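Suppose you are handed a protein chain with no further information: no name, no annotation, nothing but its sequence. What can you learn? This example shows the usual starting point.
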Amino acid sequence: MEYTVTLLILMGISIILALSLNLITGYCGQISLGHAAFYGAGAYCAAMMTKAGIPFGVALLAGTALAGALGVIVGLASLRVRHDFLAITTMGVGFLFLGVVRKQDWLGGEMGIFAIPDPGLSKTAYMVLVLVLAALVAAFSLYLKRTWMGFAFDAIADDEDTARMVGIDVPRYKLTAFAMGTALAGLAGGLYAHDIKYIGPDSFSFIESITILSMVVIGGIGSVPGVIFAAAALSVLPQWLQFIAEYKLLLYGGLLFAVMRFSPGGLAGMARGMAARARAGGAP
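A reasonable first move is to predict its three-dimensional structure. Written in structure tokens, the prediction is:
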């Protein structure tokens, strides 16, 4: 039972994390290769605050807010770059974050932060909290798609210059996407820190950023159900099949290659294609 609860907590955190990047990359078309930095910022902030005696709920909100604020700063710095240059810029942010936490003794340095205080909830209650938050993030993502902001994000992702010509405030919406996506990554980080009770630089490396991006691409960029399915599957599969865990990066790389070669729309695109063929086959 405890093993199942642990897996569900991991799954919920992964779903929040993947949906947070989907807001930036899937909705607004901004490629980010440093998302783990904001995940880590939320984790470190929440962990340090609870170790200082601040209640878990307040620390979690503070970590979320800090990650969102850092996202705005990075977004401001990235407004003049696009596509490959944006990817390189965000990748640099990830390496900068790792450099800072590794060199600061008050952040635990290379050893990380141990003995993070318990959030004051039973393991089952904590699982419920994580899954409820994951459901709320999913509902928010689906709602956002149907709002004017969601339409503006789509327009920017399709053609930024055309979006600007029809009157969309491109910088404002890009910053909004960065702020929301990075804040949710910070929320996932705070939840992760208080579940594992230990965090270190290796938990938020470049490999972690690629793992998050893999969940979005494999699920289907911009698709909420697809990203949820991919995040859930890719988070628990290495736990179920222990012999795969050692080759996790090889697995993700192979899946990314297969998706981009045979179904660029990811699992969601594959499902839409199968449904279209089924309708066409049943048509009179």
